[in-house]
Amino acid sequence: MAGRLGDRRGPARLLVPGLALAVAGMAAMALTGSAAAVIGGALVFGAGFGVLQNATLALMYDRAPAGGELIVSAIWNTAYDLGMAGGALLAGLVVTSAGYPLTFLLTAAAMLPALALAVKER
């Protein structure tokens, strides 16, 4: 669905909604006393994350010179994998002292600066 919307309206227009969903979902998961909030938050976060995966890769392809698709794919996948690994490592270190609710809130807060860049990109 994100791909279809990106094709129709441009992938840059999906950055703000994708980030907003990811931030809202992560913040909702901080409500660990409620199974519904955690599960719902995970679903909302996942939807936003999926939109962002599609939109960022499509933006990179759009900006690459003809024949640069392999390089774009390598850069995007490397950044994705390193980001996931680094984020998981950092979250694991924080969660041991701060707990899950605060770790989820800190993660949501860490995504907020990207909203300013996404707004500028539109």
Automatic annotation (TrEMBL):
Entries under InterPro entries matching the protein: MFS, MFS_dom, MFS_Exporter, MFS_trans_sf
Top-level taxon: Bacteria
Main subcellular location of this protein, as a coarse class: membrane
Lipid bilayer topology: Multi-pass membrane protein
Compartments where located: Cell membrane
Leader sequence residues: none
Keyword Transmembrane: yes
Pfam families per UniProt: MFS_1 (PF07690)
This protein's UniProt keywords: Membrane, Transmembrane, Transmembrane helix
UniProt cross-references to SUPFAM superfamilies, sorted A to Z: MFS general substrate transporter (SSF103473)
UniProt cross-references to PROSITE patterns, sorted A to Z: MFS (PS50850)
PANTHER family given in the database record: QUINOLENE RESISTANCE PROTEIN NORA
Name assigned to this protein: Major facilitator superfamily (MFS) profile domain-containing protein
